[in-house]
Amino acid sequence: MTTNSPLDRRLDKAPYAAIFALTWPQALMMVFHFLIGFADVWVAGRLGREVQAAVGFMTQAMFFFLVVAVAVANGSVAAVSQSAGAGLTRRVQRFAGLGIGLAMVLGAVMLLTGQALDRVFLRLLQLPPAIFPVAADLLHIFLLILPGYYLLTVSNALFRAGKDVITPLWGMMLVTTVNALGDFGLGLGWWGLPRLGHVGLGWSTFGSILCGTLFNMLMLVRRGTLTRRSLPPWRWVRRALPYLVAVAWPAGLMQIVWHSAYMVLFALVASLPRESVAAMAGMSAGMRVESFLFLPGFSFNFTASILIGHLLGQGRIEDARRMGLRIMKLGVFAISVLTLLLWFVIEPIVAFIAPDPTAAPHAISYLAYNMAGTPPMLAALILSGAFVGAGATLYQALIFGGAAWLVRLPLAYLLGHRLLGSAEGIWMAMLASILVQCAAMFWFYFKTPWWRFTLRKERCQRPR
Q: Contact, 277 vs 420, CB < 8 A?
């Protein structure tokens, strides 16, 4: 991507229109991603509250196994977007090949590691006895799709880094369709298919991810992103890999710290002195509703990483800083309006997702606190996208990890187990950590030279 591209000229003349052009397909893609989880939880709710609680719990566990894929994806976004901004096509292809190769190898390693330690992993989580067998079945199936999931995650990042937000949208539509057909068909036995219950939910995830991965690989080859030139010589790999690792390891650490914190949070809910299973089911349902608010947030986050990476690749640091703030302001305004509208219909939505009468009150309580924290949470999330585009994932790890382990979890234990003895104390701790996280993100954005992590530092000038 050169500095004279149509999108770059549009960014200069009508920046908000350019932001919207990149954001809406990603927002729609996130809607389909939401529908995947919505179908899983809805069908699980019809199979019993134990299944619904296990599905929510194993969704978080799956994120834990995908942290390395997300790390490689973040490194690829930074390297490819900056290279595309600098107009270095060959380097874009080589970083794409390097990212896909790492995804294949690391996905296989995580599969083997997970299969060797699956029972140990589940026991460490201290699941209630009623949930353990269901969670074990789901984990066994989810582990099998890890290599495909790694390729899907990294390939989607490569499309975004090249400002192609339409191709991954088609891929996510395919994944959503196959997953929904599998959930209702294999989970509930619709359309004459065998009713496999929670096992059917696991295999529908397997089939949908496999279809999406094959589609993405085909499109990368057809677009010329993956060619013979994408197989870099070892001498180039030795020089390029350190930057990819330097961006990826903090991103991976952040994912481990963040999702392990969620696993501990689930364990704190599971070990509450009363109504633990109902609270877990309510939290699972509440997180599904809450995730709807994160759809535009993640799309704005992705847009920030794309545009900041391209602008820094061109050496336009001051423009990159202003662009990050523009994206954040637009995103927070849109999300605040959406949050307010959703709150007016929250009770029927929760009743639809969590039909169990003991789980619904916990879901509403969870949402009351977390929806109040949605605007500051997503302000921090969007600005963190700017850090990803710049390769400053170390700052992202410090902020999100610190808020989770130094604020959220200690407060959750103190309020949930010691002072109040209920799930509401844990929800209070979540809101407090969100406010701390947002304040820290603003400080780092305005007070630190986060652009110094850019791949081509010599092309960048310090802002005046």
A: no
